[in-house]
Amino acid sequence: MSEILSPEGLRCDGRRPHEMRKLKCEVGIAQDADGSAIVEQGYTKVLVTIYGPRECGNRAKRTNDKAIISCSYNKATFSSGVRMRKLITDKKSTEVSVMIQNTFEAAVLLEKFPKSEIDIFVQVLQSDGGERCVAINATTLALINAGIPMKDYVCACAATVYQDTAILDINNLEESSRGPLFMLAVMPKSENIVQLQLDHRLHNDHLDKVVKQTIQGCKDIQVLLDRKIKERTVEAAAAYDIKPRV
C-alpha cells in the first residue's frame, strides 16, 4: 500500500485523503426509458435506465399491495483494462444487482404502485473504482427522472484506511490495495443507512472516523445530485413557460 499516499499526503490522482473525485451527471438521456441518468465520478462512468412502474407480468412475483423492484447490473467488457473470466464477472454482477435492488426497496415508496414492477438496468461504461457507489448514485437520479417517489435521495460513498488515515471516494488503485473497503449508502437528510458493505477487516478504532467521513461524502454527493435535478426542473419548466418551485 506504499503507493496510496505520497510523503506529502497526496493520493495518486493528486487528491487529499478527504477529497472526492469530480462528479458530473446528466438525466433524461435515454429517450425510450421512463427515466435515465449517467453519472461520472473521476474515471468511473455508469448509465442507469428505468422502466416502470408498469404492470407486473410475472404473477408469481406480483404483490397486491406494492410494487416490486428488479435490477440488472452489467459491466461492459471495455470498461477497464482488465479481463475477467465470465463466470466470476457474472457472479459479481448478480451480487451487485441484488444489493442495488435491496437498497432501493428500502427507499422507494412501493406501496403507491400495487401490482406493478420497476426495472432498473445498470451499465458500467468506464471502471476506475467505486462502481457500486456510482451505480447507486446514478440509480437515484434515474428514479427521480422517472417520477418515482422516494423517501429521500439515496447516496453512496466508499472509503478505506491507510496508516490511520481515512481515504474517501476511492479509485481503482486504492480499491485494489487489500486494505479495508467500506461502502455506505444513506438517506442524507435523516442519515438512515440503507446499505453497508465491508470487504476485509476494519479495526474498531477506525470505524467511527470512517463512518462519519463516508456519511459526509454522501451528503456532499446529494448536494450535487439535487443541483442537477433542480437545473433540469428549471429547463423543463422553461420549455412550457412554467415557473417552478425549486
Q: Roughly how many Å is the radius of gyration?
A: 18 Å
Mean pLDDT: 91
- Rounded to the nearest angstrom, the distance between the terminal CA atoms is 45 Å
Strand order of the largest sheet: 1-2-3-5-4
Low-confidence stretches: none
Question: What is the chain-wise order of helices and strands?
Answer: EEEEHEHEEHEEH
Short description:
This protein is an alpha+beta fold.
Salient structural properties:
246 residues; alpha+beta; five-stranded mixed sheet; four-stranded antiparallel sheet; 9 strands; 30% helix; globular
Description:
The protein has 246 residues and is α+β, with helices and mostly antiparallel strands. The chain contains four helices and nine strands, in the order ββββαβαββαββα. The protein has helices at residues 86-105, 131-145, 172-175, 204-239; strands spanning 23-27, 35-41, 44-55, 68-75, 116-126, 155-162, 165-168, 181-187, 192-199. The strands form two sheets. A five-stranded mixed β-sheet has the order 1-2-3-5-4. A hairpin with a 2-residue loop joins strand 2 and strand 3 (44-55). Helix 1 crosses helix 2. The longest helix is centred in the C-terminal third of the chain and has 36 residues, at 204-239. The model has no long low-confidence stretch (mean pLDDT 91).
